[in-house]
Amino acid sequence: xxxxxRLSVCGYERDRTTRAVGLHGGRGRKGIQDASVSVEExxxxxxxxxxxxxxxxxxxVSIQKILSAISRRSYIQVEVLTGRKRNKxxxxxxxxxxxxxxxxxxxxxxxxGEVLGRDHTSLLHGIKQIKKLRERxxxxxxxxxxxxxxxx
Length: 152
Hints:
By secondary structure, this protein is mostly helical. The chain contains seven helices and two strands. α2 (63-74) packs antiparallel against α4 (91-105). The protein is globular.
């Protein structure tokens, strides 16, 4: 699929002789592998310094506490906040829960997504959306600050 005549959405090219699909013109993983990476880091068990998490892990806040605080403030039940509906009234509150959970619990997006029944990419998109809304709407920023102060 092409967006523009020279830009393709995916970087895969089909080799017409072997019908194999590969990235970067069929080179496979050549040029991508780096022998300086340890086996633990490659498997995700290591802790390379470049991926250090700088969020606060000292807060004793759970995702359930955040959901109940948002539920009290918005008069929306926790089951609705974690449900599948994408109503325009519910979504900013749900996205606020994503952001506060990410900032205050110290959990990864994947861990938060497991609790809330979402994929980590959905959480990432929601966090971006609520940050944009906070910049545009001072009322949303005020609610965010009040909830954050209540949780801290």
